[in-house]
Amino acid sequence: MRTRVKICCIASVEEARMAIGAGADALGFVATRPPSHGTIPDASIAEIVAAVPPPVATFLLTSEQSARTISAHVRQTRPSVVQILRHIDPAESARLAELEPQVRRVQVIHVEGPEALDLIPRYSPHIHAFLLDSGKPNAATPVFGGTGQSHDWAVSAAFVAASRLPVFLAGGLSAANAAEAIRRVRPFGLDLCSGVRTEGRLDPEKLAAFISAVRQADQEARTA
Known about the structure:
The protein is α/β, with parallel strands linked by helices. It has a single domain, classed as Aldolase class I (TIM Barrel). It is built from 8 helices and 11 strands. An 8-stranded parallel barrel has the order 1-2-4-5-6-7-8-9, surrounded by 5 helices. It has a two-stranded antiparallel sheet with strand order 10-11. Helix 3 links the parallel strand 4 (57-62) and strand 5 (81-84). Helix 3 packs across helix 4 (90-99) and helix 7 (178-185) runs parallel beside helix 8 (204-223). The longest helix has 20 residues, at 204-223. It is globular, with a radius of gyration of 16 Å. The two termini are 12 Å apart.
């Protein structure tokens, strides 16, 4: 199995080209609603998305909570995938599938404990994949990702084993722990932002090191 690599917090056409040139399979764009780490305006997202060639996937990270507002956000930015940051009502997830059938839908699950597995049957009928992250959606000031911190990978591994859908892993990843993440969790893909950045900018050396670590881990898994 080839582990997909998604580079998030892409902020310009130049960063997009750098990530694609390094071998990224997908790019993530953090919208400004609400403002958080790595956010850019919708107009900038639309501009960068339009410059990304297939088959590279483009992920819009949205914190909208209703099918109607998520759909509107998708139509403003035109990504190939919408990544839903909040644990929205599954009825809204079902409605979104009706409104935007041509867009792939990825539901983020913020892993705060083993109860994360209870969300698998709630969302599976309406989405194409899950993404496990380390946000704190129920905190006094909600956090929906970009923490640079990992969560309990034992829970993530159990989630991957229980899900019939592909699962991306995010949270605290870098070249130093990519192989361990693949070995322990067996995700469909790895997703990261801060682990390939220096002073907020996409770092070509960190980017190359991360993708090299992923490919080497894949090779070792195939020959084990």
